[in-house]
Write a structure and sequence with these properties.
Bound molecules: adenosine-5'-triphosphate, butanoic acid
Distance between the termini: 34 Å
Number of helices: 14
CATH superfamily of the largest domain: ATPase, nucleotide binding domain
Radius of gyration: 20 Å
CATH topology of the largest domain: Nucleotidyltransferase, domain 5
Low-confidence stretches: none
Number of strands: 12
Shape: globular
Strand order of the largest sheet: 3-2-1-4-6-5-12
CATH architecture of the largest domain: 2-Layer Sandwich
Length: 362
């Protein structure tokens, strides 16, 4: 199929981003913002499905985009069974796991569900690409120190694979011949050791590694247990504190890095300390992932929203440039990566993978 028309959908916790591509070229892009007050009534992520679909369809109609002209719909992949990297056809087993949030709640769980609903009306395929459960970790990386607490691969895989391909192309080599440490620096932070295209280790963005604008990162375990049993917090409150109210937000009451930087520049010593603390922890994790690659690192790639900040990029670069050249790809290319993932299938460059707990079990 030449130049297929593909709708890509990326549902986030505060937005639904979507774009239409003709072959590799983006011909339309839109972001619908969701305020807290609009989402607060929904008890679960999956219960937002009809609401988000309605807004998306209205927007497509408004912009004269005809669903009947589409060749495929692709959504961001959420919490599923651990999977190999690639493009997956949305099937019943996947939909069932997402509807019941079998592996956890995440806004990206809506990606496959929205794609499926739109695709089935047109009798065209629905896909997901490189979901957040891409798992290429080596066994040695799965150990935590307590047998029942296995380290998991939860990772910004879609953007990390996309920026790695981009930098490999820039330096004129095949992505699968290179070793990268990639730091996705967004609302959450994933730092990976990628050996010849495989993410062999990652700090789980909700559990370990550096603190981020909204997440606590790894915590002193002994003190954490004491806090959990202090009687002051429910389980839900503690989990929210770690994943939504940690990091910058916990110290400074904002998740906005631009605001933190401005405060630091204007002499706010606490803001400067917290900003430098995150930079310190990110650099330390990059060092750890370089050791995973045994120092054989072709490049360190900084990406995600925080990589728009000159100060953050300069400071991390100053600390880690002794390891390998540092490349910066600010923001994320998630919609484009989704469309390219679907395009590889529609143009027969790759075969779509089938989601099945049996086949993909690790
Ligand atoms: N120009 C900028 N300078 C500094 N920080 C920025 C800039 N633009 C965005 N940010 C910061 O980047 C962070 C959000 O990054 P990003 O948009 O990648 O996250 P997200 O998509 O919400 O979450 P995630 O990346 O975890 O999926 C915020 O703290 C935001 O303030
Ligand atoms: C798990 C990777 C995605 C996220 O943390 O939001």
């Amino acid at each position: 199929m030449e130049n297929p028309k593909i709708l890509a959908i990326n549902p986030g916790s505060t937005s639904t981003k979507f774009a239409v591509f003709l072959g590799e070229n983006q011909i339309f892009k839109e972001t619908i913002r969701h305020e807290d007050k609009d989402l607060i009534h929904f008890p679960t992520v999956v219960s937002q499905l009809d609401y988000r679909l309605k807004l998306l369809i209205e927007s497509l109609h408004y912009h004269n985009i005809n669903l009947e002209e589409l060749d495929a719909v692709v959504g961001r992949g959420g919490f599923l069974h651990p999977l190999k990297s690639g493009t997956y056809i949305v099937n019943k087993e996947m939909l069932d796991d997402l509807k019941t949030a079998r592996y956890g709640e995440h806004a990206s769980n809506l990606g496959a569900l929205m794609a499926y609903e739109l695709a089935k009306e047109q009798d065209i395929p629905a896909y997901i690409v490189d979901p957040i459960v891409v798992d290429e970790m080596e066994d040695v990386a799965r150990l935590s120190g307590i047998p029942e607490l296995e380290r998991k691969s939860h990772v910004h895989a879609l953007n990390i694979k996309a920026v790695s391909r981009k930098i490999a192309k820039r330096i004129g080599k095949d992505f699968q011949s290179l070793n990268f440490v990639v730091a996705h620096l967004g609302g959450g932070i994933s730092i990976v050791a990628q050996r010849k295209g495989q993410i062999i280790d990652v700090n789980n963005a909700n559990n370990e590694g550096p603190f981020s604008p909204e997440r606590s990162g790894g915590l002193p375990a002994f003190q954490l247990v004491r806090l959990c049993y202090s009687g002051k917090f429910s389980e839900k409150e503690m989990l929210t504190r770690l994943t939504k109210k940690g990091g910058f937000y916990a110290y400074l009451g904002t998740k906005n890095a631009m605001e933190v930087e401005e405060r630091a520049t204007k002499g706010d010593k606490k803001a400067k300390l917290v900003l430098d603390g995150m930079i310190y922890q990110v650099s330390k994790e990059i060092g750890a992932m370089s050791a995973v690659l045994e120092g054989d690192v072709d490049g360190i790639i900084l990406t995600g929203g925080l990589s728009f900040s000159d100060y953050i990029v300069q400071e991390i670069t100053r600390k880690v440039k002794y390891i390998a050249p540092v490349f910066v790809v600010p923001g994320e290319a998630e919609l484009e990566s989704l469309a390219l993932g679907a395009l590889r299938i529609l143009t027969n460059q790759e075969e779509a993978r089938i989601y099945s707990v049996e086949i993909n079990a690790y």
